[in-house]
Amino acid sequence: MTGSFRLSKSPVLVGGIGLAIFLCVLEIAVETGMVMELVVPRPSDTFLAFPPVQEDMDLVGNFFVTLGMTAASTAIALSIGVPFGYFLYRNRRYGIAYEGWLAAAFAAPTVLLYPLFLVIFGRTYLTLIMMGFIPGAIPIVIQTRQGLLGVSQTLLNVGRSFNVSEREMFWKIQLPSAVPTIFTGIRIGVMYTLVNIVAIEYLIDFGGLGRIVSEMYFRFDTPGTYASIVAVILVSVFFYWGFGRIEKWLRPV
Amino acid sequence: MADILEISEVSKTYDLDGENPVQALDRVTLDVAEGEFVSVIGPSGCGKSTLFNIVGGLIAQYEGSVRIDGRAVDGAHRDVGVVFQEESTFPWRTTLDNVAFPLEVQGMGKPERDERARKFVSLVGLEGFENHYPAQLSGGMKQRTAVARTLAYEPRIMLLDEPFGALDEQTRMLLGDKMLEIWAALNQTMLLITHNITEAVQLSDRVVVMSFRPGKIKEVISIDLPRPRSSEVISTPKFGEYVGRLWTLLREEASRGMVEAEAELAAR
Ligand SMILES: Nc1ncnc2c1ncn2[C@@H]1O[C@H](COP(=O)(O)OP(=O)(O)OP(=O)(O)O)[C@@H](O)[C@H]1O
Ligand SMILES: [Mg+2]
Question: For the whole prediction, is pTM greater than 0.80?
């Protein structure tokens, strides 16, 4: 078959080639002065900055710190968000009453509350986890409720006609039906969690990758700054991929 | 044979907003004998699905009574299985897991329920598609999956709400033969909603003709054709007579229904 056929078969390869082309264009743009090197370093310099940043600030270790904080926040967001979404679905009045508030809360820049959290939890990992959890939980609550509201009446009737218990109705019909919608919420939530955690790390100079970004930034080490930002992107790629796998496992089609 | 199902004076009015009540059923009375095959035919919107949902225990508020074996029905009854008009397979389950669903919720172990489900999968002619997901099946195959799933529940009364509505005439006839085979093999009482006169005559002991809004029983016609039947009876003269009679009855209702529907559209 032709090359284009094989390309369309492997999205990772297509994505990789796109990224490579973008980086080459950027490299040339910086080289020729179209882009100021102080603002955007050469991709090759960013690449070369990894070893020194690793040496200096333990990039890999801090990658896992940020990843772990995000995972912990997301775990809490899920264990509170899904049941609360279910509650709002079951109690229609509360659902209608809180929907607008939740949407408004989601739009609020909760990251600005960090001084408050510092007072409560101190300059600790708990502050990071709690501040990551709040923006992560809101879309999970909203999407869980939406997903459950969207379950087809016919599928519910199938369950009822087979006399299934309420418990099984939830686990075997409502939840699987709602999985795609809930996972949209989880994906949005985990991104907000990560952004918040990195932002707080940056602001309070504590924790994982955000602290490194801040450090590199204040040293005017632009390639180092970019290298640590790439590490943040890799955390987000990890979660995006991971939740994709979990969703695929729960809902194969 | 004794009546397994007695529907007496059942009326149902939908009143969503309290302003535009729609009377879907008006004093419907029908007794069905054990092992009987009864078709219900009538214009779109005459309340057929509503009647099935009431018998299936899915609609709680209605007037009149539904009895099974002489006892009033309250909620979904163990002896009643429903195949819904709308797409009702679980998209996240394979054909086999869809069919095994009622057995799974009854607490049957996996090896046993898979074996049972396999039997019903092959009964509806879906061998080889056990591990396919609904998205990988045609519309007719999905409906057959839904039929097999309800069969696996082994209800004494099967309510089939236009299970083959979206199929072409030829496939529908062959599936009709299949339904007759299954019916003969499993000895169930079958109630089938259909829009298709030929199908109704081909399959049934009796055909219930319903009238348009409010849904009432207009006439019940006994089909006196020899059993066992197959789609070949279609070419007999007696078959043609039944079809003719049903068509005359339905034409009035259908045209009345269309006029009303058009008037409704125009009023908007
Ligand atoms: N849940 C509902 N709420 C309000 N009105 C309803 C509801 N379900 C049905 N109706 C109305 O009741 C009437 C009968 O509906 P039903 O679905 O029983 O008809 P049907 O005979 O099955 O039609 P079709 O052949 O098109 O499936 C229709 O006029 C419909 O608009
Ligand atoms: Mg209907």
Answer: yes
